[in-house]
Amino acid sequence: MIDKTALWTVIIGLGLGSFFLRFVFTGLVGDKQMPAWLLRHLRYTAVAILPALVAPQVLWPSATDGQFDLPRVSAAVVTLGVGLLTKNVLAAIVSGAVALYGMLYLVG
Amino acid sequence: MAITTTKSAYRKGIVDALPFVLVIIPFASLFGLLATEAGLNVFETLTFSVVVIAGAAQFTALQLLQEDVPTAIVLASALAVNLRMAMYSASLTPWIGGAPVWQRALAAYMTVDQSYVAAMTQYERAPEMTVPQRMAYFFGTVTPVVPLWYIFTLVGAMVGSSVPDSWALDFAIPITFLAMIAPMFRTLAHVAAAFVAVIVSLIAVNVPYALGLIIAGLAGMITGAQVEAWMERRKPGSMAR
């Protein structure tokens, strides 16, 4: 059972902390000019962070206790492949979901 | 569809974010469901989602709370998962830093992976957009996402544990992220950044407090910046003369 004090401390602390992280640059830097070298790095934030977030979850999903899972890997490959071919987010999501459930049905 | 007014920017934001509806619904429901399984009541579960709006950090906190980890460590770990939001904030600043502070604060509260990526993609594709149009677009992208995050957290909490694990709802988010990554591979520098970030994230997966993600992200960003600089030097007539 989760302790109520701990729970509310985490909810409020995480809420305030997350807001701070989200606001720290847009709020405090605002329209001041940032150096060119920094901007050059920031251009690659999204394309670096999202794949890094996903890769371990694809290979070692927590839902299977970190065991390699063929349906999840197949779904990831199909999603990325369809995304690259079509550049269409919706088509990629739907194909990935179809691959995931298809493989879960076949394998599981 | 060209953006000519703030209203059309807002509408385009909504349209571009519609695919995310498919994944926010299962993901929010999953949080509601797991939170009630962990012993939270409906009010606590909904408050959690409204106050924090960050799926990955919420799941991390929920899991650690159940493992009797000290509260300070729970907070630190969940915030580390959210550290990427500071990087998002930094990369949004050149585009929306000129907006009124209340708009920037509101946008900060609603910055989630989906809205951030959709907005950055649009800003880079249409650099002629004005700051009010950029803000309108941003608020458009969160319009279909954030309310559904609240509503389906609530639905998940009320439906409770009647959804079996075999539905594999956990994989909704990896699929969305993968679908969002593909259109971002515009140059060799983008591909190299993603490639290095993936390799480092796999090597650093056991680094405590989810800091592996930040290390991998920084490695990818440095790679992207270096490759971009290298490609500019190779361009005939730029640095050579």
Structure notes:
The complex is a heterodimer of chains A (108) and B (241). With 108 residues, chain A is mainly alpha-helical. Chain A is flat and about 55 Å long. Chain A folds into two domains: 1-32; 46-107, no CATH class. In chain A, helix 4 packs antiparallel against helix 5 (89-107). Chain A has five helices and no strands. The model of chain A has no long low-confidence stretch (mean pLDDT 90). Chain B is mainly alpha-helical. Chain B folds into two domains: 6-183, no CATH class; 185-241. Chain B has twelve helices and no strands. In chain B, helix 1 (6-37) packs parallel to helix 3 (55-66), helix 1 (6-37) runs parallel beside helix 8 and helix 1 runs parallel beside helix 9 (146-159). At the A-B interface, helix 1, helix 2, helix 3, helix 4 and helix 5 of A face helix 1, helix 2, helix 3, helix 4 and helix 5 of B.
Number of helices of chain B: 12
Kindly report the oligomeric state of this protein: heterodimer
Strand content of chain A: under 5%
The SSE order of chain B reads HHHHHHHHHHHH
Structural class of chain B comes to mainly alpha
Helical residues, percent of chain A: over 70%
Instruction: State which percent range the strand residues of chain B make up.
Output: under 5%
Average pLDDT, all residues of chain A: 90
Give me the count of strands of chain A.
0
**Can you count the helices of chain A?**
5
Biggest sheet descriptor of chain B: none
Write down the Rg of chain B.
20 Å
| Helix content bin of chain B | over 70%
Gist of the model:
The complex is a heterodimer of chains A (108) and B (241). By secondary structure, chain A is mostly helical. Chain A is 77% helix and 0% strand.
List keywords for this structure.
heterodimer; A: 108 residues; mainly alpha; 2 domains; 5 helices; 77% helix; B: 241 residues
Explain the layout of strands and helices:
The complex is a heterodimer of chains A (108) and B (241).
Chain A: H1 4-28, H2 36-42, H3 45-59, H4 70-86, H5 89-107
Chain B: H1 6-37, H2 42-52, H3 55-66, H4 71-81, H5 84-96, H6 101-109, H7 113-125, H8 131-142, H9 146-159, H10 172-181, H11 188-203, H12 211-234
Helix pairs in contact in B: 1-2, 1-3, 1-7, 1-8, 1-9, 1-10, 2-9, 3-4, 5-7, 7-8, 11-12
